[in-house]
Each structure stands twice: as C-alpha cells, then as structure tokens.
Hints:
- The structure holds two protein chains of two kinds.
- By secondary structure, chain A is of the alpha/beta class.
- Chain A folds into two domains: about 5-195, no CATH class; about 205-305, Rossmann fold.
- Chain A has helices at about 5-20, 50-70, 85-95, 100-115, 135-140, 140-160, 170-180, 215-220, 225-230, 260-275, 285-295, 300-305; strands at about 45-50, 125, 165, 190, 205-210, 235, 280, 300.
- In chain A, the strands form two sheets. Chain A has a four-stranded parallel sheet with strand order 2-1-3-4.
- In chain A, α2 runs antiparallel to α4 (about 100-115).
- Chain A is globular, with a radius of gyration of 19 Å.
- Chain B is of the alpha/beta class.
- Chain B is globular, with a radius of gyration of 20 Å.
- In chain B, β5 (about 200) and β6 form a beta hairpin.
- The longest helix of chain B is centred in the first third of the chain and has 24 residues, at about 15-35.
- In chain B, α16 packs across α19 (about 375-385).
- The relative contact order of chain B is 0.14.
- Chain B is about 50% helix and about 15% strand.
- Chain B has helices at about 1-10, 15-35, 40-55, 60-70, 85-95, 105-110, 115-120, 130-135, 155-165, 170-190, 215-220, 240-250, 295-300, 315-320, 325, 335-345, 350-355, 365-370, 375-385, and strands at about 75-80, 100, 125, 190-195, 200, 205-210, 225-230, 235, 260-265, 270, 280, 285-290.
- The two termini of chain B are about 25 Å apart.
- Classes of the chains: A alpha/beta, B alpha/beta.
- The interface of A and B includes residues 137, 140, 143, 217 and 245 of A.
- Iron/sulfur cluster (SF4) binds near residues 372 and 374 of chain B.
Amino acid sequence: MPFEPREIARLIADSMKRYGLPFPAPSDVAYSWAKGISLPSRGSPMLYTGALYQLAPYIVSIVDYTSLLEGSSLSSLGLKLSRHLPPSVLRIAVRPREEVRAYVERVLRSIVKLLERSGIRPAYAYEDDMYSGVLLYDLGLDELFAEQARKVFKALKARGAQEVIAVDPHTTHVLRSVYPKYVDGFDLSVRSYLEVISASAVGRGEVVVHDPCLYARFENVVEQPRKLLEGAGYKVLEPRRSRRMTYCCGGPIEGLAPKIAKKIARVRLSELSEKSSLIATMCPICYINLAEVASRERVEDIALLLAGEVK
Amino acid sequence: MRAFEEIEAALEDEEFQSALSKASLGTQAKVEEVLRSRPELLALAEEVREIKRAAIARLDELLEQAMNSLRAVRATPHLAETAEEAREIVGKLIGRGKLVVLSKSMAAAEVGLRPYLEAMGNEVWETDLGELLIQLEGTKPMHTITPAVHMSRRRAVELLEKAGAKVEGESIESAVRAAREFLRGKIVRAQAGITGANALAADTGAIVTVENESNVRLVSSLPPLHIALVPVDKVVPTLMDAIKVAMVQSAFAGLYPPTYINVISGPSSTADIERTRVYGAQGPVEQHVVFIDNGRTAARKGALAEQLYCIRCGRCQYECPVWIHTANRWGGPVYGGPMGLVWTAITYDANEAAKLSFLCLGCGRCDEACPVGIPLSRLIRELKAYAMRDLK
Lengths: 311, 392
Ligand code: SF4
C-alpha cells in the first residue's frame, strides 16, 4: 500500500525519542538563531518559538526529497516515506536548505526587535525552547503529544514563565487551545507576538495578506496583523477569500500528498497575486508553500515587513 | 488501496479538475450571496442547530413517536438496524420483475439499494438527472447534492444516448429535454417509487423533501407504492422543524429559494364518496418508511456524535481545499469530503475512514462553513488519532 501515514508517524515518534525533534536535526536548531542576542534566560513574558520556524528548512528538504519519489513505484499520489525507506535515508534527506535557514533566522531576530521596539523585553529559554509537538497533535499521536506538552509546560514554568509569547499560528494554537486539554494545571497565558506589539512606520506600498487558517479560524488573530501593517505604512489588500474564510496554503499535507498540496498552493497564490505581487504571510509553513510556487510574486513574512527588514 | 489510485487518477484528469474548480467557486459565491442578502437564513441555521442537538439527544423517544405518527396516517414504519436489513426490507416490499424509480438518495447509496434491487430482477432508474448520469457512468455520486459535478456536457450527452435517450443537438437544454422524455416514460409506468427525506417530523409522521427538478414529487406520487428511506438522524420533533431543516439545507447548498418543498404524510386518500376514507386516490395506495440506523445510534455515544446533526447540505465539500481536487473520490465508498469521512466511519468502516483522514489539512474551513456548527476538523482529527491509537 503506497499511503503510509503510520510509517511517517513511526519515524517521527522515533526521532522525538532520540532528538526531542520530529526529524533529525542539530541539537541547537531551536536556539542557534539567538546566539549573539542576549535575552534573560528566565522570567516573564517568555518568548517561546516551539522551533517551528527553525524546523521549516528541514521540512522543505524532506518535501524536496519526497517529491523526487513522486511517480516512482514507491508512491502513487506522491505519498511517500513508505516502509521501504529506512531512517538512515531520512537522515540524508533532511539536510536543510540554507537560504530558508537564513530567512527564518532573520524573521526570528526581527520578532525580538519588534517586541523590544514595543517596550517588551522578553525572556528566552534557549535550550529549553523545545519543540511544541504540533506535528504529533496533527498526526493524531495523542500520547506522545501529551508527553511533550507536559515537558514543555514544566520547562517554561521552571524558567519563571507566566506569560508566553508565541511566534507562529500553530504553536500559538496548541499552547493556547490544546495544551489546557492535555496538561493538568496548565496556567500560562499565551499570546501571539502579533497581539502584543505596536506598529512603527517603516514601509510603504501595497501588500495582500494571507491569513493562516489557525490564526483566522481558531485563535481570532485577524484584525491585529492588518492594523499593524497599516500602522507600518502599508496599504492592506484583501484576497477574495480572507479573514475567517481564508484559504489554506496546502502546507499541512505537503509531506503526505505533495501533489494535492501543490495544487492548493497554486490556487491560493493566484488569488493572492490578483491583488498584489507582495504577499504577507504569518506562518513558516505558509511562507514555504507559497514561496515554492511563486514566480513573479514576492512572499514575505509579516515580521520582516513590520520591522522594515525586507531586502 | 484502490481509493488512493482513484484520487491519483482524479488529480491527473483535467476535465475533472476544471469542472470541480468551476463548480466550487460558483457555489461558494452563490451561498455567500444568499446568506449575505438574507441574514434571516443564518438565524434559521442557528435555530436548526439547536433543533438537531435536541433531537439527537432524545432520538429513541422521537423515533418511537414518529413510528406511531406514521401508523396514524396509514403509513407503515420499518426499522433497519443495518444496511443489509434495509435492503432486505425494501426488497421484500418490491419483489421481483418490477419497474422501480428512485429519486436521489444518499441513504439508498449507503445501503447499496440499486444494485440489490437490480440483482433481484427489477429494472431500476435514477430520476435525478445527475444521479442518472452517475448510474449510467457506473461511478458514485461526486457530491451530496450535485452528484455529476465532475462531468462535462459532452460526457453527459454520450451517456444519455447510450441509455437510449434521444438527444437532438449538443446543447445542455437538449440533453435535459431528452432525459425528461426518457425518464417520464419510466416514471409513469413504475410500480414503485423510492425517495429519501431531508427530515421526518415525529409529531405527524410527515416526510419533508426539498428539490428543484420535481422528480421527487413524481417519484413519490405517481407509482402506487412509495417507500421513503430515512436515516434515523433525520427525525426532528415537529413538522415546522422539518421544514426549517429543508430551508437551511437548500440555502447552504446555494439553491435558494428551493423550487419545491414537499410534505408527505401517508398515502393519498379521498373521502369524497359518502365521507368514507379510501386510500389510493391519485397518489400512492401504500406508503412505507424505512428508518435506517446502520451505526448511528451507536455513534451517539462516541467521539463522532456531532456528525449526527448533519443536514447534508454539502457546503463543507464545496469549501474544502482538498475536496475541490478530489470530489467524493476521497472519503469512502459512498460519502466524500469532510462530512463524508465521518459518515464513512459511522456507517461503514472506521479504519477505512481513518486511513483517508490523513489527506485532511485540518484547516477548519469546513467548520466555518457548516450551518449546524459541526466541528468537522476536530472529528477528522479524532479519526487520525484512531488510526494511530496503538503508537506510543
Ligand atoms: S457537515 Fe455541515 S456543511 Fe457538511 S454537509 Fe453536513 S451540514 Fe452541510
């Protein structure tokens, strides 16, 4: 059978046990971006990335690799990483793409800048900035997810966090809306950085916003990004499907069914680009999926746009 | 797994892809416009949400009341625990060598009724045009309301001609005209008509259906025997409730106003001679209602219970980014898309549904679209967790 989500789940579970990460990556992958920025390592509010931005370059390379298999006998549908692939092959597959790695580092640094500019000096947990378990939850690996959630909660509490500032929609969502169901006594207040920063005028021109599904439909982070972009000097344009009815970038199934995911990304990109060739994303997965299919369009993370860091 | 090969083929089929993209963009815009211009329909949907919640909570009691109400209007109720039982009940009522007409019913597809009746030696025809095309193509309904959404006009004409309908010219109008003539010939001669139901009122035994083609009217009134297949989750307390369900279903399918809403309470009758009531006037002499459980009662206690509020409007399908590229090729042997995954788990096989659930993005667009507030993406994630339940 070509379609083996359980095989992928096994690889991920295995990697979680060995590395604390959903796929093999260097142990400092979560916090190497913060080298040279000195933030207090204890206290509140605590900046918590959950490593999703940092893992994005690895996700891209898995996708690159698996797309190669598409059409081969291993995969109809491009549903890959079948049982025929041993973990050693996976390890080769996950060499990160350098340009994406550099990009997400800039995004994270910009987020710190935006917080500081708004008068917020967060603590940062460095080696305790652990993976949140988003993918485990999405794949239905409930026990592993619960275990990870408890670990993350404990580590954040141990470092004195009461308020947590998350940087992407998936991590914001699991921490704010899912952890409380899985972790006894969860009492952290969780916000996205987009809910706490203020704008300063750094940009101009038109930009079309791509609402990520989880911010728009599950976490009610809808008006803040628009206000921030306007405050930064941009004219904000809306695609045909936006706000609560926003349209997915296809990212969540990129690893399992890249053909469908690409089709979805193309549909979304084309409706965004009807409004502007500059597209603002707020999620590393959206960024990657839309940037992959973009040609004339420019896809930029909102943090860079708000910080005036777009090149 | 065959399902994935079919999805793969659908992805490569340009005709399929462009038909679906056109249909879904069109329907999305249509529903949006209906709801924007008539906010009262959103309020009505809220009401239906509460009606369904309350009805499912006291389903056993309502079902009993519905059976009594049906007897009171001289209809005959039956209860089928399984798909097999449902087929057998209908098979016994119809017998062999009959001409049978069907109006589009996902319940009929769920229990595999058409092939069963055919195997018994009956001639069986679908009378909804889309469903007739599906019958002729030998595939499955690609959407809950618009089964032939994936088909081009060229293909439709080809299939109709193969069946013996005389299509003059290439236009869609001439295809529809030919189908009308063809089907009329069947409907007037049919010995039995089988329909589904949008809702059934426990207080009166009234069946409510909503449609545009008028085939449900013909199928339920011309033949001497009318059989309605009613999944038990469609029972609501009152006739008013049932009509509200039909209105909301139609609005969220983008077909508003509905051309016809039909209310049927028992077989036709007259008391015009000496005030003596005689059954079988111009409509059916006999009417039967087959309630279908097939996993529904059991689902009330499980993690998927909220799916039982579903009024089958199909909006979650047209709004789903994945469904738009796969149609009902994704979701199970009968149902498809977001609602389809969960209905497959309830009425067919949870393992099959769980395998297919991994194509779900979890984007939540279906949750937002659903008139009765079913948290589809959460239910589908439950299916994923079910597939992984032994992995630690
Ligand atoms: S789940 Fe909701 S949106 Fe989907 S068919 Fe049922 S009622 Fe309609």
